[in-house]
Amino acid sequence: MSVAVGSRFARELPEMAIPWRAEEFPAPMVLVLNEQLARDLGFDPAQLRTDEGARLLTGNLVPEGAAPVAQAYSGHQFGWYSPRLGDGRALLIGELTRPGGGLVDLHLKGSGPTPFARGGDGFAALAPMLREHLISEAMHALNIPTTRSLAVTTTGGNIHRSGLQSAAVLARIASSHLRVGSFQYAAATGDSDLLRRLTDHAIDRHHPAAASAENTYLALLDSVIRRQAELIAAWMHVGFIHGVMNTDNMTISGETIDFGPCAFMDAFDPQTVFSSIDETGRYAYRNQPLVAEWNLARFAESLLPLLAQDQEEAVKLAEASLGRFREHYSATWTQGMRAKLGLPGRTPADAATVADAPQPAPDEASTLIADLFPILQAHAVDYTSFFRALSAAARGDEEPVRSLVAGAGADDTDIDGWLRRWRTAGPDPALMDRTNPVYVPRNHLVEEALEAATTGDLDPFTRLLDLVTSPYTERPGAQRYAAPAPEGFGPYRTFCGT
Ligand code: AMP
Ligand code: MG
Question: For residues 260 and 497, is the Cβ–Cβ distance under 8 A?
């Protein structure tokens, strides 16, 4: 393979990296390859499809320069602290240099048990790896920061998961795999040199501007808080529910990571929880900003020794920084909701150019946003379809919106009043079409595609992947992919991706 792989994490942070090799697999075969991403990274897709490529994508061929490691991290799982999690079934192969510059991790999931396996078998079943491929690529197409999937490769072996299932390895590309839990791990060792090295590594890779700030480490904290606030707001805009927002599943880069029990909301209900193990609804849709803030407090705690010599002073700085999460989250969320409704705020800079366009008074958009959610909830309206149908309403055809709201059986007077007020505000349908997707990985479609894929028919998966990776373009003949789940589907349950 012509692509150079580095071992920067392994070299700079050996205390958090156990050198390890993947299981020898009987017959690796590339099932799904992300050709565009492969090319973007400098790979030749045809070469990745060969036996040699399949061995690379399962860790059976270690590229020159790579020093595969299992990464150590801690984490709060559903609020409970585990001092030693780490890659139980994953390996960091090393870092690739993007042709345009900048490092990304090449990481394998399902590559066999490591010293962090804690009784798990170290493997992954095909369906959950295809699920991660599909959903992470859909997120990317929705312009939401996320890890990417380069390939899903079957190993040729079977594993036990409610019967025998094909095993597979996901090759994941990420800006890095540094997590809040990585910092919790380093902080818990009490080794201040390790914590500083980890933090400098994170700044260099993800937040380089922090290096020149007056208080470098506080600037890192601020920057991570901002990116996470923006990330969670973006999830909320598309109805994405991560499902397992443990601190080991929250990145320092601001990318979405670990697509286990995640799912997109169908009917709007802020209490929606899909994960079968989330019994208390800790990670319900509406709780996501609060949980992110809680996780970031764990990040801030880990950084305390670096924020100031005096720990009281450090706590004050951390609290002030954490206090800015809500502000930034709310501002980003509101801006995104305004775009979804086609009512972008007018900044002083565009005031001159759009002086003639009808603009709502600043608080009219906020009132419209606030008044909309009770309607969506009362009528159990399909979240994705509603916003897309609004474009037609902005162009004068209110029928699609009405049928979604009235279809739930309740009286529709409140939507009529809302639509009248909203149309008076002069929504921009072209902006809405660029903002509100037609296609997201709807739960019933994902299940249908994965079921077919596990019995050897990859066509429904390929078709769905094709649509959700161009989510804003309506395609002829694809109406069923844009439609709400059929009556009788659900309640939908997801499982941690093992
Ligand atoms: P996750 O829920 O995917 O974020 O995983 C949480 C922890 O469990 C991580 O330390 C994983 O490496 C580990 N883990 C999950 N599934 C397995 C498995 N089948 N074998 C070994 N470790 C696993
Ligand atoms: Mg994880």
Answer: yes
**pLDDT for position 346:** 61
Q: How many structural domains is the chain composed of?
A: 2
- Give the H/E segment covering residue 405: helix 399-406
In the structure encoding, which two tokens stand for residue 441, read together?
Answer: 């990985």
pTM: 0.96
User: Which residue, judged by its Cα, is nearest atom 16 of ligand 1?
Assistant: 498
Rounded mean pLDDT, 139-157 = 98
Placement of tokens 């208390």 in the chain: 280
pLDDT at residue 406, as a whole number = 75
pLDDT at 490: 83
> So which residues are the catalytic ones?
248
Range of the domain at 86: 5-174
Look at residue 265 and tell me if it is in a domain: no
Ligand 1 geometric centre to CA of 94 (Å): 20
335 contact partners, CB below 8 Å, separation of at least 6: 344, 345
Neighbours of ion ligand 2 (CB under 5 A): 249, 258
Cβ of residue 277 lying under 6 Å from some atom of ligand 1: no
The alpha carbon of 81 and the centre of ligand 1 are apart by a number of angstroms equal to: 15
Q: Which of 377, 407, 435 is the last residue of a domain?
A: 435
Distance of CA 403 to the CA centre of its chain: 31
